[in-house]
Structure formats: C-alpha cells, structure tokens
Amino acid sequence: MRTGGEGSSAGMAATRKRGAHAAARPRTPPSAAPKRVPQPAPGGHAPGTAGIGGKLVDGVRSRITLVRVVVAALLVGFVVAGIGDGWWSTESAEPAVQNFLLDWQEHSYASAAVQTTGQPAAVTAALQSAYSGLDAANFYLSMGYIHQHGKTATASFTASVDLGQNGAPWTYQGRFQLRLTASGWKILWSPSVINPALRKGLRLAMVSTTPSRMPLLDAAGHSLQTASKAFVAGVYPRLLKHPAATADALGRATRIDPTEILGWIQAAPRDRFLKLVTMRPGYYHRRARDLRKVHGLVIRPTMVQLFTSIAPAVVGSVGTETSAALRNQGIAYRPGATVGLSGLQKYYQGLLAGTPATEVVTETAAGHRVSVLKKWPGHPPTAVHTTIDAAVQGAANIAVASAPGSAAIVAMDGTTGHILAVADHSAAGMPTIEPLAGRYPPGGSFTIVSTEALLASGLKIHKFLPCLKLNSVGGRNFQNVPVEPKLVMPSFATDFAHSCGTAFIGLSLRPGMRQDLANAARGFGLGTPWRLPLKSFSGRVALPNGVAQLAAATIGQDTVRVSPLTMAAVAAQVDTGIWHEPSLVTQPDPERAQQIRFSTATMASLRALMREAVRSGAAKRADVPGNPVYGQVGTTSLGGHGRHQRWATWFVGFRGTTAFAVLEFSSSWRVSAVPLAAAFLRAAPGG
C-alpha cells in the first residue's frame, strides 16, 4: 500500500504491497488441509512446476474460482544424487524435504518448523508470514532435485505464488541445505529457505502502483475536468492498535470488503499515511457519522480533477474505490482505483485508467526497498482528446442554465463535423433532454428538410402561398402553433420565415412529395449509422401512410423523430453544403467520417430562407449583433392535457462555421427557444 505522488485517479497514485484480488479468499486452516499423499501427481508434472490448482497455459493459470482450498503439494520428479563413502548406507534426505514442503504448503507451519534447526516459534512465525506482504491467494510448492553428500544435502524446490486476478503467478526457484542429525535430517534454517533473496530483517512485499487517471481533453488540449472538493480517508498503520477492527469498521461504512482493506494496511509502510478511500462530498457527508467512529481513520479534505467537468453530458462520471461498479465487474479493491460510470469516462476506461505496475520486492520492516525480484510493467494511462471547444461549451452552459424549463444545446463545426459543445439542463416537473440520443419531434424546425425536398422538386421560393389559420388534409385539421399574425400575400419565403406550418401542409400534397421527403431526409443523414463512442440518435423519418400522415411528417410531427445532434448536423450541412458525420474524439483517431452533398443551388436557397427567418421572421430575436445568424424555429406538442401538457420548442441554425440546435421543454406553447439561442450566440465566440 505504498503511495506515491499526490492524489489518485482522483489525483493520486497509490502503491500497494499485495496482489489485487477479485474477492476475499479464505486461507485454508491447517486443520482443513487435505491429507498428504507423497507420491507423483496424476499427469506427471515435471520438477519445478506447479502441479495443482488449474492448467498452466502460457504461464497464466486459468482458475475455476477465486476461492480455492489449498491442496496437497505435488512433490514430484525429484532426483537424488550422492557422493562420498558410505552413501548407500546413509538415510535419504528426500522424505525430510518432502515432509517439510508439504507441511509448509498445508499451512502446518509448526510441524514444518520442528523439521528445521531454527527456534520453532520463530520459524513458525516466519513461514506463516512468508507471503503476507504479497497478500497471496494461494501458493504451491514443488520439490525439485536433491543432491546428497553423506550427512549433508542440498534441496531445490519451485514456489508458485498466486497473486490473484487471473494473472500469471510469481514463480521462483528455492534452495536450502540439510544436515543429518541424531534425530534425522534437519533443514538448516535461515530466511533464505523461504526465498534466496531474504535475510534477517527483510520481508517479501508486493508493490503495486495505481497510476493517476488521465483526463479527457478539449480541442485545445486542456482538461475538460475541473477541480472539485473531495475527502480522502486513510490511516497511519503504526498507530492502529487493532488493524482488523479498523478495516472491519471502514468496510461496513463503505461496503468495501474489510479483508481487502486489511491486506493493504498490513502490507503498508508503518510510518506513512496510507490513502484508502477518495469520496465525493455528498458520499462523505452521508457516511460521516459512521466514518468518524472508525478507530485510527484520518479524513482529509482535498481538491481533485475527477468528479466535475465543463461538459458532463459528454465526459460522464467517475466512481472511486467505493463504487459498486468495481465490485460488479469483479475488480478488486485497490486504493486509488477509479472506474468510468458513464460517458467517455466509461467508454475509454481502459485508456484513461491504464493498468497498475507491479513488483515483488524485498524490503526492510520500515518499507525501504532492497531488491526487485519480479516486475510486471502494466500499461500507462492515456489522455483522450475530444473535439469540444471550451469557449463554445461555456457559452452553451451559460445559456441552458438560464432556461426556466429543461433545455439542451448541441453545437458543431460545419466544416468538419466536430462536435463543439453538448450542454443540457433539467427543470423540476419537466422531462429531461438527452442532447445526443434523445428522440423528439422537431416540429417546424424540420421544414429545413421539407424545404430541400420542395426546392429539389422545382418549387420557387417567391411563389405566392397563403398562410392559413387552419388547413385540413385527409380528414385531419392542422393549425399553426403559435398563431402567426396574418400575412398579406405571402410568398413561400415569407411562409418559411414565419414557420407557417399550414402552408407546408398544403405543399405536402404535391405529386411525388412522399419520395422527395424521404430522399431529403436521407440526404441530411437522418437514419444514417454514426460511429460515435456515445449513444446517439441520427433521426428517423418513417415513410408516411396516407396524405394526413405525410402532411404531419412535412412539419416534423407523427413519424419524425430527431435528437438535438441530428438537427445541429442538418444546420451544419446547410451552412457548408456538405453533411459531415458527427465526431467527438480525435485521439485515439476515429474512423474516416462519411460525407453527403446536396445541390449547391438548393443549399444557397435554404441559406437565404434561414437568414430571412432570423432577420424578419419568427426567429428575429436571435438576430444578435455580429456575424449574420441563420435559423428556423419550431413548436410542437409532446403530449399531455391541460396543465400536464408539455411543449418542445426549437431553434436550429448557424453562425459562421458553428451550427447548433437548441431544444427547450416547457408547459406553454408561448415559450420560444429563440431567446435561449440568442443567449448562446451572445456568449459564444464569433459574434
């Protein structure tokens, strides 16, 4: 449990003298050990190999279960060689070697100790604690060659120590001396009997370094995560009178396996502060009463770049050691461990968190390293670069925070398809909005798509087209919401600018409109599969049945569903003339995005229509100072009746190369998303 550096994945790098196990594994007590059978094992394992506990494949043991009972050692394949006069009449050392190794493996430490020249109590303690610093799940001992020289002998063995988590075991070659005494062969005791690198005052330890979690970066290479308060709970091991009681109490408070906590405490340097848990403020305050009762626990407030972000809808959330997600995935408790719970944090968990570097070392009781016996390098964590523009994201955050209802804004770069901002805000009593994956009717904002279909079929934008208060098609009555002022001799361009739905209802009866609308939707990428790392929705326009359903689809109702990202991509295509598949991550490099082109003349006409809608039409409150703004509005019902009825209002448009969609939910059709769009534009760069 050695810690290095400041913070964990919550800003700190935790080091650990142990193997990280997926679950607590009870050690087999001596009384439960199986009966020794000193004979070759089935399968004929060669000397120096672990002969039980699963198959050895490429050095990695596959384990049926993490909780296994220690079984009898497979002490096979030994060879005894003798030199010297009278060798044939000298008692063989082989049974003594075999019995010692079997007793050691079966946890019969006292029985093993009396077979040595050491003081029995001291040897018993040494064997019992031999692998405690590794927090080993199990260990396996296999007898190797024995060289006997009269009344002295040298024995070799192979130790295979299971460090957990289905990884390769630590295997090493051991060696010890024997002497024939009046009471039989005895192992000449020294710490090197356990491992050749050990001597008096040293112990074996596992040092596992948990690297700090790497951040998600914006387009400029700056972290999307912001500093936030957290609480770190830890202990000074030397001050704990009853480490097991401390671990048990902390385990009850945090639901972490107390045996795992105890393993870290026992293996940690005695005089250093050991960080055990990093907690969000809310989590800590809910459990503060219980945590304050844990003997020896020290709680320190700190700041970490882990829990908060300028783009939470994209970044997602992170859990620490207390997260149930770690336990559900079978990941062992490890101080400093983090897990992505949602968003890009979850999708790129492996890259952002990396894997721990692990070493088996010898060290002094004070925790000073003497030698490294085995090293597993792990994989360093890697930052993930996104397309989010911090300035655009900040403007979107400011705008949605001012909305009285639930709101969302998605912004894109029309020249690349890069997603620049994703912001959302939830209001009490209103449905939440999913900016990327939601499925909502676009209402009048969908007339951008319908207009492309009409222009492609030959409609002239200056054609006279009345904006009726009510229009009936196929036995269904359609009316404008909100009601626009009476327009005198309006052209199609004027009808578009005022989002006159009844005018589009009439145009839906044009020959071939059903197929033209389907072609336009496909040309704008609706229904096209996206390769985003997050769940998203590219839209759906089911081919309508009957004239009434076709009329409804023309104004973005009934069979039409989109997400704010869908409509931002539509606006981006009008802006540049090319549909770019939306992208959110630049490193690791995404697959090459697909593109779709429309007629240049059609896109030019659409731009002119959208500019007029902002300059003098229903979206004129979005005509803020600065570069010209283009857009279209829409209002449609989400269902419900009376005071329970909910409305969706849209603004879809672009300024410069930044295309965006604004969606707001409210309880009144009088609420418009245009002021929200204006607030975004005033705060965003490019004004």
How large is the share of residues in beta strands? 25-35%
CATH superfamily name of the largest domain? DD-peptidase/beta-lactamase superfamily
CATH topology of the largest domain, by name, is Beta-lactamase
**Low-confidence runs:** 1-88
By DSSP, the count of extended strands is: 31
* Helical/strand content category: alpha+beta
Gross morphology = elongated
Q: How many separate domains?
A: 3
Q: Main β-sheet: number of strands, strand sense, barrel status? A: 5 strands, antiparallel
Instruction: Name the CATH architecture of the largest domain.
Output: 3-Layer(aba) Sandwich
Contiguous helical run count: 19
N- to C-terminal distance: 54 Å
Rg, alpha carbons: 36 Å
CATH class of the largest domain: Alpha Beta
What's the helical proportion of residues? 10-25%
Main β-sheet, spatial strand arrangement? 1-2-10-17-18
| Mean model confidence by pLDDT | 85
Please characterize this protein's 3D structure.
It is a single chain. With 687 residues, the protein is of the alpha+beta class. The protein has 3 domains: 163 residues, Penicillin-binding protein 2a (Domain 2) (Alpha-Beta Complex); 174 residues, Nuclear Transport Factor 2, Chain: A; 294 residues, Beta-lactamase. Helix content is 25%, strand content 26%. A hairpin with a 5-residue loop joins strand 20 and strand 21. Helix 4 crosses helix 5 and helix 11 runs antiparallel to helix 19. It starts with a strand and ends with a helix. The N terminus is likely disordered.
